[in-house]
Amino acid sequence: MMVFGAILLAVALVVAVVTMLLRRQLREKYAVLWLIIGAAVLVLGIFPQLLMWATVSLGFQLPANLLFTLAILLLLGVALHLSWEQSQAEEEIRRLAEEVAVLRESIERIEGALDAASADATDPSDGPDR
Length: 130
What we know:
- Helix content is 85%, strand content 0%.
- By secondary structure, the protein is mainly alpha-helical.
- Helix 2 (28-46) packs across helix 3.
């Protein structure tokens, strides 16, 4: 029953990731990680003795302890990566906001010069003397 559950979980994960990719709800660089996780769960579901071998080889007492450790490491890695991505996005947003402010100032200066030029061109007191 555990094997069937692991296989079902892996298939559901892969289907969900592919669906989100097709709908453009998930970027490819994140999808790769989730597809690798889905493949690993599928392999461990099909060959549960691999988990037992890894448990003994790495010195864990229970397979669940190994899975929890791997899950915690994975989540820490994802959190670190997302923090880095957020920092990059905040820097880009700050730079773009500065560029918009400079461009807005330039537009206002040009509009002011155009308004002044059009006011001078339509001013009747500047006409030729007769």
